[in-house]
């Protein structure tokens, strides 16, 4: 059945027609987000924040960065103590969005560990020119610290030592959608249907690629569950983050020594691949509205898919990373001292009341188990001498 809201824009019709009448869902997701002329990110149409399309943790206030900075400083100081051979440490952010996280981290590190600042540079890895332009306006405000934008391939040629952060980026990677129907597996595709001279997008079932077949063969080991699970409904759709393995490989080549923190929408494989989750985790976002109709407004909204915790960790392990641990964001931020921030609001004077209430609301949103608090923090280490010891404060018991 055709969805009347899934009108296909002209530029996308051309792509689909040039590709023989259909494209994979993977290609569709890549195009609607990253097509240089029309993609939601590439054009810089995405707006992150309370008045934008959706909120991320750093867009709520600088408290997320101030708490995360406590962990980031620990990691930098551990690197310093270990006397590794590097005069410069890099704070690398992948997919920096509006650029606020890097800026606020540097401001917080300046307060927490001023002696570190002269040794630091900021390295931003952004796929989309439209977003980079927005980041430049925010990050260039930082005085006395070198900030540079690089692509991953260039960074691989000149790897760095430091801390890499990827907050809400992996969920934006294009995914393959897999369809299990009557004991058969298909790759989801997207094609066109013409009604009264107008073209609409519709899903089609395509033949699985050899990569998908390989994923299915490896899946039990990768996901640590029976896959596909038993008792599937007649038609069951799920996702495979097919770019994650090569991404971890590239990440391991950009970093000589240091840590990588991934923060994202994530679920254990048992929940992710539950027979009850009949349509996977993909969702679109626009103007703070989530919408399960992922063919609507192609190129004008965000698309996001959760990551699977077990497969993410396994892809990291097979690509040279050591796993440090994972926890929910709510737990991580409490371990880093969020309750102290809340407690300090008790000393608010009456003319600061409104600002204090806003700050309190933002702090609570960061740990809300129905929202950002449910995000997962997964940390990894790269260590070319095999003797680095990191304090992972975010995994410790929360400070009361
Ligand atoms: C959902 S936004 C997250 C923004 C930011 N990290 C935050 O928390 O506010 C995703 C960002 O990642 C960028 N991006 C998407 N895929 C990327 C990739 N493969 N490498 C680098 N950046 C990417 C997008 O252009 C966008 O800036």
Give the helix/strand layout:
Elements: H1 10-18, E1 22-24, H2 25-34, H3 57-60, H4 63-81, E2 89-94, H5 100-112, H6 114-117, E3 120-125, H7 129-139, E4 146-149, H8 152-157, E5 160-167, E6 176-181, E7 184-195, E8 198-206, H9 210-223, E9 235-240, H10 244-254, E10 255-264, E11 266-267, H11 269-272, E12 283-286, E13 289-291, E14 302-304, E15 307-308, H12 309-317, E16 322-328, H13 329-335, H14 338-344, H15 353-367, E17 376-382
Parallel strand pairs: 2-3, 2-5, 3-4, 5-10, 11-15
Antiparallel strand pairs: 1-7, 6-7, 6-9, 7-8, 10-17, 12-13, 12-14, 16-17
Helix pairs in contact: 4-5
The protein binds S-adenosylmethionine.
Report on this model:
The structure is a single chain. This protein has a single domain, classed as Rossmann fold, CATH 3.40.50. The mean pLDDT is 95. The chain is 36% helix and 24% strand. The chain is globular and about 65 Å long. The strands form four sheets. A seven-stranded mixed sheet has the order 4-3-2-5-10-17-16, sandwiched between helices. Strands 1, 6, 7, 8 and 9 form a five-stranded antiparallel sheet that branches. The protein has a three-stranded antiparallel sheet with strand order 13-12-14. The protein has 15 helices and 17 strands. Helix 4 packs across helix 5. By secondary structure, the protein is of the alpha/beta class. Strand 6 and strand 7 form a beta hairpin. Bound molecules: S-adenosylmethionine (SAM).
Major sheet, described briefly?
7 strands, mixed
CATH class: Alpha Beta
Q: What is the quaternary state of this protein?
A: single chain
Low-confidence stretches: none
The DSSP helix count reads 15
**Strand segment count:** 17
Kindly provide the radius of gyration, computed on alpha-carbon positions and rounded to a whole number of angstroms.
Answer: 22 Å
> Which CATH architecture would you pick?
3-Layer(aba) Sandwich
Structural class: alpha/beta
Number of domains: 1
Could you say what the CATH topology is called? Rossmann fold
Task: Give the neighbour order of strands across the main sheet.
Answer: 4-3-2-5-10-17-16
User: What small molecules does the structure contain?
Assistant: S-adenosylmethionine
Calculate the terminal CA-CA distance, rounded to whole Å. Answer: 54 Å
Question: How much is the average pLDDT?
Answer: 95
Percent range for β-strand residues: 15-25%
The helix content, as a percent range, equals: 25-40%
Shape field? globular
């Amino acid at each position: 059945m055709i969805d009347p809201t899934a009108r296909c824009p002209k530029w996308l019709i051309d792509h689909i027609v040039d590709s023989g009448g259909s494209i994979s869902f993977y290609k569709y997701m890549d195009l609607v987000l990253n097509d240089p002329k029309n993609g939601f990110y590439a054009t810089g149409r995405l707006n992150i924040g309370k008045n934008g399309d959706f909120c991320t943790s750093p867009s709520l206030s600088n408290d997320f960065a101030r708490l995360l900075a406590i962990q980031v400083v620990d990691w930098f100081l551990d690197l310093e103590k270990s006397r590794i051979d590097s005069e410069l440490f890099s704070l690398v952010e992948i997919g920096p969005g509006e650029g606020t996280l890097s800026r606020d981290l540097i401001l917080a590190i300046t307060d927490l560990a001023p002696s570190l600042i002269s040794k630091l540079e900021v390295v931003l890895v952004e796929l989309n020119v439209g977003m980079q332009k927005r980041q430049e306006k925010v990050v260039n405000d930082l005085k006395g610290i070198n900030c540079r934008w690089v692509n991953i391939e260039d960074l691989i040629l000149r790897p760095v030592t430091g801390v890499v952060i990827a907050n809400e980026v992996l969920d934006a990677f294009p995914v393959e959608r897999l369809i299990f129907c009557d004991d058969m597996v298909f790759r989801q595709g997207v094609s066109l249907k013409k009604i009264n001279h107008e073209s609409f997008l519709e899903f089609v079932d395509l033949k699985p690629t050899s990569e998908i077949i390989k994923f299915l063969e490896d899946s039990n080991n990768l996901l640590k569950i029976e896959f596909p699970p038993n008792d599937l409904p007649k038609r069951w759709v799920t996702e495979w983050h097919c770019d994650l393995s090569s991404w971890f490989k590239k990440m391991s080549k950009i970093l000589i020594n240091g840590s990588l923190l991934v923060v994202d929408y994530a679920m254990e494989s048992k929940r992710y691949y539950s027979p009850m989750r009949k349509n996977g985790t993909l969702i679109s976002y626009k103007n703070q509205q989530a919408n399960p109709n992922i063919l609507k407004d192609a190129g004008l909204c965000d698309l996001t898919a959760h990551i699977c915790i077990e497969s993410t960790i396994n892809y990291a392990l097979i690509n040279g990373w050591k796993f440090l641990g994972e926890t929910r964001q709510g737990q991580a931020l409490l371990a880093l001292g969020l309750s102290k921030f809340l407690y300090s609001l008790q000393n608010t004077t009456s003319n600061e009341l409104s600002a204090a209430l806003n700050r309190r609301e933002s702090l609570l949103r960061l740990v809300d188990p129905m929202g950002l608090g449910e995000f997962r923090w997964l940390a990894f280490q790269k260590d070319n001498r095999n003797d680095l010891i990191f304090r992972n404060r975010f995994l410790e018991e929360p400070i009361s």
